[in-house]
TrEMBL record:
Enzyme Commission (EC) number: 5.1.3.14
PANTHER family on file: UDP-N-ACETYLGLUCOSAMINE 2-EPIMERASE
Name of the protein in its database record: UDP-N-acetylglucosamine 2-epimerase (non-hydrolyzing)
Protein source organism: Clostridium frigoriphilum
Keyword line: Isomerase
Length: 376
């Protein structure tokens, strides 16, 4: 294998967390020259991850704008990458998951006839508008992809049903498990001082994140109302809500929960903080995709604040449970886990289906085999 130039492109914190360990593995291979380009679809919370993993991008499109639209993101990524691809001429572009950056970067690579590798390929909810726009971003990226790195056999089967050549699919596990080897520490002391004051030993701490586009409006309102009921009905419970800075989310959350006892509204925290918080908490409630993979690795049950999930492996394994955005259902399912030891034990002891923490190594091995068989 001659020297190969691989460009890794991502734009949000979840992508960065999952691509960081892969970048570290790529940098270990002398024949691979790894270039990193961030679009900064998210800015501040993306920069936190780059700092933690000591990743210094060669290119930064810095596209984030207040109340940016999906159309705006797509156009900015396409136009920004055009000049970079012309200059660098990478042998392959690696993208991750389901963001608008992912789809736009894959499309930009296709326009330059650059092969695409898709990390975390094959996840499907089979609902066009949920998660929105992520479900379609994944499918469109899959249509443009040359090498599909599927985290599980179910993801592989989804791709096969869509006509993808089995020789181009590699089951690797999810690289987020790799990332946690870098971030989880024993006796961790939080940089956010407020978290060090939380009584994790004697209180049942619920970590909450909820910000997805399809939950804007009534969804976020219902989640907040449910959290208020949960703490009122369970005196041993405290809630730590990591509130997304988007005003569409933040304004609603603060209007309902600002002065509620035992609910702490916190700014987003960096990856090390959130992973170690998950390790210490009792239960996680989220509409995030990645947390559905991360928390079960730490033995924490997850209530998913969505009606559907593309992480169906977790549902089958029993590590997560769909509760949607209905107030009564959220409260009911939370109370089961708070009050019923057997219910809690069954979820917390389920086996996480997302791999052994060697996903990045498997992806690099697949890339080396691919380029050994390709004339550059």
């Amino acid at each position: 294998m001659e020297n190969i130039k691989i460009m890794v492109i991502f734009g949000t914190r979840p992508e960065a967390i999952k691509m960081a360990p892969l970048i570290k593995e790529l940098e270990k291979v002398p024949q691979i020259k790894c270039k990193v380009c961030v679009t900064a679809q998210h800015r501040e919370i993306l920069d936190q991850v780059l700092e933690i993993f000591n990743i210094k991008p060669e290119y930064d499109l810095n596209i984030m704008k207040t109340k940016q639209s999906l159309t705006g993101i797509t156009c900015s990524v396409l136009s920004g990458l055009e000049e970079i691809f012309d200059k660098e001429k990478p042998d392959m572009v690696l993208v991750h998951g389901d963001t608008t950056t992912t789809f736009a970067a894959a499309l930009a690579a296709f326009y330059r006839k650059i092969p695409v590798g898709h990390v975390e390929a094959g996840l499907r909810s089979h609902n066009k508008y949920s998660p929105y726009p992520e479900e379609i971003n994944r499918k469109l990226t899959g249509a443009l992809t040359d090498l599909h790195f599927a985290p599980t056999t179910i993801s592989r089967e989804n791709l096969l049903r869509e006509g993808i050549d089995k020789n181009n699919i590699f089951v690797t596990g999810n690289t987020v498990i790799d990332a946690m080897k870098y971030t989880i520490k024993e006796n961790y002391v939080f940089e956010n001082h407020e978290l060090n004051l939380i009584d994790f030993k004697n209180k049942k701490i619920i970590m909450v994140t909820a910000h997805r586009r399809e939950n804007w409006g009534i969804g976020i309102e219902n989640i907040c109302k449910a959290l208020k009921i949960i703490v009122e009905e369970n005196l041993d419970v405290e809630v730590l809500y990591l509130v997304h800075p988007n005003p569409v989310v933040k304004d609603v959350v603060y209007s309902i929960l600002k002065d509620v006892s035992r609910i702490h509204l916190l700014r987003p925290i960096d990856t090390r903080e959130i992973h170690n918080l998950m390790k210490k908490c009792y239960l996680v409630m989220t509409d995030s995709g990645g947390i559905q993979e991360e928390a079960p690795h730490l033995g924490k049950p997850v209530l998913v604040l969505r009606d559907v999930t593309e992480r169906v492996e977790a549902l089958s394994a029993g590590t997560v449970r769909l509760v949607g955005i209905d107030i009564d259902k959220i409260v009911l399912e939370a109370n089961k886990l708070i009050r019923n030891v057997e219910e809690y034990s069954n979820m917390s002891k389920s086996i996480n289906p997302y791999g052994d923490g060697n996903g990045s190594v498997k992806i690099v091995d697949a890339l080396i085999k691919y380029f050994n068989n390709v004339s550059i």
